[in-house]
Amino acid sequence: MNIQFREGTEAASHLTTKAAIADCDIHPARASRTELYPYLAKRWQHHLDVYGVHAYQGMMEGPPYPKAQPNASRRDAYPPEGGPQGSSLSFMQKQLLDPNNVQLGVLNPLNTGQGIRNHELSAALCSAINDWQIDKWTSKDKRLKASIVVGNEDGLAAAAEIRERAGDRNFVQVLLLSRNVEPLGQRRYWPIYQAAEEAGLPVGVHAFGFGGNPITPSGWPSYYIEEMVGHSQCQQSALASLVLEGVFERFPKLKMVMIEAGFGWAPSLAWRLDKVWQRLRSEVPHVKRPPSEYIREQVWWTTQPMEDPERREDLFDLIKWIGWDRLLFATDYPHWDYDEPSRVLPAGVSEANREAFYLGNARALYGIS
Asked: Which residues constitute the signal peptide according to the record (predicted)?
């Protein structure tokens, strides 16, 4: 997949009349395998050289299902100076931030230290990724803010990393992935939610991950397209677990952001949860309110993939249930299924809702004035 990019001078790229937007899902990449070494102790550098990393499943160097292109990215996103897509700040500025008038960009690094069996190495790599995000990205461009990457399978270590970064305005959320060893409502992950709530940071749950389980609920698929549509199934399981294990009841100020899995499935999931909760609530007495109430109060959703029904009225009905104040625009740069900001919303959206969708909701959620 390729995105046509109109060439222009660097100076001209800053002269834009487009409305300001927030992009809540940008994927920075490392230029080389050893780019994190300056942020790692000699012990871990040696460990990586000799032993490498061992994830809960194979193919840790990329997404767990083969794709046609490296890093699932646009061919035109290769930086002119070399390196993988998403590894150059100057090219990201020229290709994404400047021409689209991105005033807030949230970084969500993938292929980090999450999903690694050696939990000490996982924690070290996640901390290194967080230092790298500051040095290479957020300190160089104030429009960019980072997500705190944590060793998700070690709740205590993850909580320590969150508390270490709390108050640092380079960071605006905690990043988890949807595929983990257990569903995200399980108690092993509660220290993460407690630390995030204390820090006032939302927890973003991005599609993908390395949990050691098949990537669909019914096993390993034959085609990549099955994995793509499976993202929503995984997020549904994660969200049901968060509600029914009582995470939202125990942490009422916790805010979750569901990233890159769509949102069209949310109403039907909530309706079904409400119905069965009415009949089986004695099994989960810690869930004190209908599940839909927790979801509508404590969950935000990024676009890309943006639901695209034939009738725009269907989309508006869907967003009405979700709430115009709960949607966050995202491009997914530099990945090939990138959403062009000017083409995402259909006609008929009020100016107030349009502004909230593109910028206001993100500023409010992340506390960016």
From this structure: none
